[in-house]
Amino acid sequence: MCGPENPGAASRNDQPRSLQNLCRQFTRGVSLTRSASGRVLLSMAFNVDLHVHSLASGDSDAGPEDLVLQAIETGLHGIAFTEHYSYEASEPAELLAEKYKGKIVVLRGTEVSAKDGHCLVFGVDTDRLLSLYMPMAEVVAIVNRHGGVVIPSHPYRGVNSIGDTLKTMKGICALEGYNGCNAHAFNVRAIETAAALRLPFTGGSDAHDYMDVGLCYTSFAEPVTRENLVERLKSGNYRGIDTRKISRFPFF
Fold first, then answer.
1. How far lies 195's CA from each of 19, 234, 245, in Å?
2. How far is it between the farthest Cα atoms of the chain?
3. N or C: which end of the chain has fewer CB within 10 A?
């Protein structure tokens, strides 16, 4: 089960002031609400978990429909299946999108394993365009050329993460700032890097268990559909949200 790797709980006052100020910019004029499952969500926003894995990823026991039902229960407006390696692996999302139409938006992407780290890709069929373990710079160039977007996932986790190499990489749409499987310190570093590069940051649970859906999510200022997802991501008018308790110990 993927949850916070943090040994304690802390208030927002324990976060670095620079991070507090950055997040405050994105929440002016927005109020909070609590879903039936107890998760805190931004109201007057469109909230999507942009990073979810089902059993099709090979390292998850979660059925696709269980993930969608949990997203509905959590109060999310959308969920994105981002299976490892393969776009075709998320094919069940097509049936679920139709079945739960009007209740939740079901999206598809891929978590690509590049040579220098993982990245989320939206808007293209990665099976047709990419090979395993290509350098991420090549992934970005190809995906952008075909109208999609690339978002390095958990960039500072240390494993399967691109790290500071992203600072010189051109064409990235955003960074994944809040990842639900990351220690808070890794997420803080990603958000601070996004600010330094003047890039937006997303949030996603990286769920491998249905109970983890919505731990982190992306709050968009405008509704997201399957047709406009890439456009919304390119707009930058969103921010990642972390609903988890935060460690008192910033280096763990």
1. 9, 16, 23
2. 47
3. N
User: What average pLDDT does the chain have?
Assistant: 87
Q: Considering the entire predicted model, what is its pTM?
A: 0.83
Q: What are phi and psi of 63, to 5 degrees?
A: -75, 145
Altogether, the residues listed in the chain come to a count of 252
Enumerate residues 6+ apart whose C-beta is below 8 A from 86: 56, 110, 126, 127
Domain boundaries, the chain: 45-242
CATH class held by domain 45-242: alpha beta
End-to-end CA distance of the chain: 19
Q: Are 119 and 82 in contact (CB under 8 A)?
A: no
What digits encode the pLDDT tens for the residues 213-252? 999 999 999 999 999 999 999 999 999 999 997 644 444 3
Can you read off the two tokens belonging to residue 145? 């050329």
Within 13 Å of residue 75, how many CA atoms lie on the same side as its CB? 18
Burial category of 192 from C-beta neighbours within 10 Å (exposed 0-12, middle 13-18, buried 19 and up): middle
Distance CA 221, CA 232 (A): 9
Cα–Cα distance measured from residue 15 to residue 35, given in angstroms and rounded to the nearest whole number: 24
b vs e for 15-49, b when ≥16 Cβ sit within 10 Å of the residue's Cβ?
beeebeebbeebeeeeeeeebeeebebbeebbbbb
φ/ψ of residue 120, rounded to 5: -90, 135
Q: Which residue has 């709980």 as its token pair?
A: 9
